[in-house]
Amino acid sequence: MIDKINKLKEEKNAIILAHNYQPKEILKIADFVGDSLELCIKAKEADSDIIVFAGVDFMAESAKILNPDKKVLLPEVEGTKCPMAHQLNKDIILKYKEKYSAPLVVYVNTTAETKALADITCTSANADKIVSSLDSDIILFGPDKNLAYYVKKKTGKNIINIPEDGGCYVHQKFTLEDVYRVRKLYPKAILLVHPECNPEVQEKADIITSTSGMVRYVLNSDEEEFIIGTERDLIGRIELELEKLGLNKKLIPLRDDAICKEMKRITLNKILESLEKEKYEINLDEEIIDKAKKAIERMIELSKN
Ligand code: SF4
Fold first, then answer.
1. Which SS3 state, helix, strand or coil, does residue 153 take?
2. What are 90-108's pLDDT values in tens digits?
3. What's the domain range around 201?
4. What is the mean pLDDT of residues 253-280?
5. How many separate domains does the chain show?
6. 46, 56, 200, 247: most buried, per Cβ within 10 A?
7. Does the beta carbon of 262 lie inside 6 Å of ligand 1?
8. CB-CB contact of 48 with 66 (8 Å)
9. 160, 177: one domain
10. Average of per-residue pLDDT across 151-172
11. Which of 56, 114, 122 has most ligand 1 atoms within 8 Å of CB, for mutation?
């Protein structure tokens, strides 16, 4: 199957972008692996005719927004909608915009329609930097309330989270009990958590960072043991990098069941089928693409500085 995928990639001038939460067998056939920001940048730089996105709906949409002339394929549409991305919609945004005259910053984990209404997007890797750069003390921010908590703490700005209770079900699973239990078993391990985790879990962490921040931290650290507080398959992603460097470090999941079932809908078989039949193609309204592109490109520009 891998040979067939590679042959089709060559024949059709296609590339595969895979998110850090994909399992090892998919990461191994990908041309680029990364977090949302890194993949946005790779999508923008891509000179292929076809982009196959091993991720969830909003990620493939972002690739299309940045590459409107290319064919962007999501290998599965059933069950690949990120639940958090769909918590923030036009009605909620318009309601808050009526009440507050403040810039709207949206997480890249949102639909294309939501991005089109935003002043700028952000990722967990740059959210505090983006918010700090804006010339306003009040910021409308959505949809993740835990990321909003993190940004508020880092920037000191008045962050109004919309909707009030937005969040990722995978990261909201982590509790203080998990932290105490795993810390007791591995007292020397460094605890890294994602800013989508609940505030009380963030408060107990040694490091709060994005998925790529975690990869870099583990690779560059002199420590030997790490507890990983994000989607479980990030461990496989880090292990692949450690193997390349001939390093051996212990990686412990904060919970075994922190699994994003939407991400796992993508399989090697579906990627092969996607390349063969060129499905499922992402199509977006031109006006949405134009507006959403401005919000994403503004973020990419600011992230470079
Ligand atoms: S891990 Fe959470 S935010 Fe990321 S795709 Fe899955 S549900 Fe969405």
1. helix
2. 999 999 999 999 999 999 9
3. 171-253
4. 98
5. 3
6. 56
7. yes
8. no
9. no
10. 98
11. 56
